[in-house]
Amino acid sequence: MRFLVFLFTTTLVAARAFAQGPSISPVSPGVDIEPYRDIVEQIIEAATSDSAAYNRLAYLGDVFGHRLSGSRALEDAIDWILEEMETDGLSNVRGQPVMVPRWVRGEESAELVSPRDENLTMLALGGSIGTPEEGITAEVLVVSSFEDLEARASEAAGKIVLFNVPFTNYGETVQYRLNGATAAARAGAVASLIRSVAPFGMQTPHTGTMSYADDVEPIPHAAITIEGAALLQRLADRGERPVVTLKMDAHFEDDVLSRNVIGEIRGSVHPEEVVVLGGHIDSWDVGTGMMDDGGGCVVAWEAVRILHDLGLQPRRTIRVVLWTNEENGLRGATVYRDSVMAAGQIENHVLAIESDGGVFAPVGFGFEGSDEAFAMLEPITELLDPVLSEGSRGRKGVTRGGGGADIGPLMREGVPGMGLNTDSDRYFWYHHSPSDTIEVLTPDGVQRCAAAMAIMAYVVADMPGRLPHTSVDGD
Amino acid sequence: MRFLVFLFTTTLVAARAFAQGPSISPVSPGVDIEPYRDIVEQIIEAATSDSAAYNRLAYLGDVFGHRLSGSRALEDAIDWILEEMETDGLSNVRGQPVMVPRWVRGEESAELVSPRDENLTMLALGGSIGTPEEGITAEVLVVSSFEDLEARASEAAGKIVLFNVPFTNYGETVQYRLNGATAAARAGAVASLIRSVAPFGMQTPHTGTMSYADDVEPIPHAAITIEGAALLQRLADRGERPVVTLKMDAHFEDDVLSRNVIGEIRGSVHPEEVVVLGGHIDSWDVGTGMMDDGGGCVVAWEAVRILHDLGLQPRRTIRVVLWTNEENGLRGATVYRDSVMAAGQIENHVLAIESDGGVFAPVGFGFEGSDEAFAMLEPITELLDPVLSEGSRGRKGVTRGGGGADIGPLMREGVPGMGLNTDSDRYFWYHHSPSDTIEVLTPDGVQRCAAAMAIMAYVVADMPGRLPHTSVDGD
Question: Which of B348, B339, B323, B185 is nearest to B260 (CA)?
């Protein structure tokens, strides 16, 4: 995910942006879960008696590999999913056209060339410009923060600035990935590096999106490993003036056509009302993007496939959407929201559920919406319980605070939003790195995530009362 | 270390090889530790009041990098250490000449070329031959064990055999690294791969030594990552017949001159009697070899430096030896043993202590020798206690079973041997990989290891009674 920061750090902002629902009537009672006990048992049995979701995910990664926006692999994967969804028997299977940016990494390297030669494992950050063909060779100025750079701005001209900032939390540390190049360019640097945004690594570089402020001349921006950054820090501390040669072919090409992948189970009573659930089908161009977010896509897709196979048709429509271009543009989410608005269907979007936190063992769902809606959903915790792990953050079941980047545009229009929470303590070990592969997940965790998604989607789509929208500022 | 297998799996063998000391007299009493309490306090204060050992280790890695036998970096590092030992004021500082093999990795790659293109992160195994310049392209036969290969031998001809064997323990799993090429060649394979010998990785390849039986035609032998091996396994399981192109420049060049690094504190009463302690100064050619075994070298060296700085002169001589070529030849250890034998000094070697298990937080020492000797040493646990961690294997203090590859030749001549034990649960995550860097260690752990080594060496070198030799079969 690009915007996990959203999940963990902007709950307060979101709470401010969405004024809570008017409390004219007393809080609604929770959904009556009794009618759903048998169905939930069937769902759990269907989801956990085999490894179908895990195997589908492994196949996606093995056959197509990573899926950066603009790549052939992404479109091939989308073609395959559309075919499979048809075979699964889902309704209204379609690809929704989305123009996406095409950023290409190309060849790249960072070499320590003084005081000794050493390859520094690196990844250009998504959206960065490249270097001249001969590279950029300059002394490295190591700083510990934006403030440290400001204090030493007079030393930065003509240098490569390294932000050697230890990981605290994603929302805080990712600022150096997002905005480090702008700050370094303002100080006169010729390129900028960051210590990878991760709490742990094994010479592991982490990429991710970045951008430039409009008023600076862009400079190349890349991530090196924790070990590489520590080496440059020690050399600088000893006064050894480390010199690095950075070579990057990174560049943008013309936007290309991609698609959001959509499939449905049509509602029996209110087919116009929609519970949407999904993840993002694009990934970074390293590893196979199984954690971020192939897994999120497959558990949403499999949730709907399982409901369909069980012959379950809820009152409202359940729609799976695998958004494209979450990582470096959010164009898929934007196009989807725009199409819903243009069709006058936003009020009919009852709930949006995203899974983009890694399909480790599920612990519950984080909800963003009115108190009334939350009260309706809370009893579902009991139905989910058989497939939930305890996790380590005490947020088991349906809890307050959550969302996702792709459902953000819908949520800002008042659609209640929800993110699948999992036991994701190692999420940032693998995030946007070559080690984001199927090996970080387990069949058991993936299958239980699929069960949790199916249970939540089905109950909310079928329960007699629909979830109220969130009041949006200005309504 | 090359032979950690020795530490964990050959205790029984060793116990058989060294008949225990004759039990004619009752077991000797333990050393009286009372006279050493003040001195040990001084040692601990000196070792833990700063980060001198850690800083020296970081400098070794930062300035010289990895130190494969035959490399310029190894000899440069040795030159620097010899100079520093002189500056430290140690006695008899010298480099003992040792001819070592020079195996050169060169350029190398493994590419999945069908059913899709994907780079497989890899490392040739030390001692392997290379491929023709155009590489070897062949279908991969994935097997789970030597037995599985035998059962499927008819399928192996002309293929690249992959031993996809999960890590159980080093002694067991390393057999595929050591002997996989021989088994695959016997079955008619054109090359062999192993899943890296490690319980966990983040696309991390692990190298290490290997060899060929005399009666087979050598084939190239390399390690791929856990993730890469799992990918090939899944493709094969689906009947997709994975094809890999393997390119390796690996080859041997002529042996070159290296050195064991030696320095001493001369004994005041029995200078001819020696307690020897050390590690191995060579490393594999990835990472910076800080865990394996730069750290072991530096804590032994710093132990002696600290004793010298404190003005402590024990009854017997304390000698630090940083052996060369442990990883792919054991030539340094062999030359040292031979020189001791030639000088008739083996009986005067009172104890040999090796640190080659990673200088994580120390938990104690594992001892191999007679019951009488063990009884003499056991009370030292109490002196070590302030610097020891609990660890996770319940072997705190001086315990039975231990040694090291470099002191093995001395031990086989009857010299009691001892290995520093540390809290090394993640040792094999980093072992022989690019992530064997200073970042896996902590200043606190390194400094406490130096303290533990100094305490053990000093007490054994100074205690009134000397340790008896181990009876060797055939004595």
Answer: B323
Cβ separation of B227 and A435 shorter than 8 Å? yes
Tokens for B352?
């040999």
Beta bridge partners of A366: A399, A419
In the numeric block, which tokens belong to residue A128?
A: 């960065």
- Which of A203, A233, A426, A429 is the best mutation test for B, with the most CBs of B within 10 A? A203
In whole angstroms, give the CA distance from residue B353 to residue B420.
7
**Where does the pLDDT of residue B375 fall: very low under 50, low under 70, confident under 90, or very high at 90 and above?**
very high
Closest to A457 in 3D by CA, of A306, A313, A353: A353
For the stretch A235-259, pLDDT in tens is 999 999 999 999 999 999 999 999 9
- Tally C-beta pairs within 8 A across A and B: 65
Name the CA dihedral angle for B185, B187, B189, B192, rounded to a multiple of 10 degrees. Answer: -60
Contact B203 A235 (CB under 8 A): no
Q: Is A30 exposed, middle or buried (0-12, 13-18, 19+ CB in 10 A)?
A: middle
Chosen for mutation from A202, A285, A291 (greatest number of chain B CBs closer than 10 Å) is A202
Chain A neighbors of B201, CB-CB under 8 A: 202, 435
Query: Could you give the CA distance from residue A295 to residue A56 in angstroms, rounded to a whole number?
Result: 9
Q: Which residues of A are catalytic?
A: 326
Does the ipTM exceed 0.90? Answer: yes
Structural domains in chain B?
A: 4-102+254-462 (3.40.630.10), 106-249 (3.50.30.30)
Query: Which residues, 6 or more positions from B455, have their beta carbon under 8 angstroms from its beta carbon?
Result: B40, B43, B44, B380, B383, B384, B387
Terminal-to-terminal C-alpha distance of chain B: 30
Rounded distance, CA B324 to CA B360, Å? 22
The pLDDT of residue A1: 61
User: B5 pLDDT exceeds 80?
Assistant: no
* Both tokens assigned to B454: 């100094």
Residue type present at position B162: L
Find the angle CA(A364)-CA(A367)-CA(A373) to the nearest 5 degrees.
Answer: 120
Residue B12 predicted with pLDDT over 90: no
What's the whole-number average pLDDT of chain B? 94
For the question of residue B326 being annotated catalytic, the response is yes
B277 is written with which tokens? 């302690």
pLDDT-flagged residues of chain A (< 70):
1-28, 474-475
* CA atoms of B458 and B439, how far apart (whole Å): 30
Pairwise CA distance, residues B317 & B331, whole Å = 24
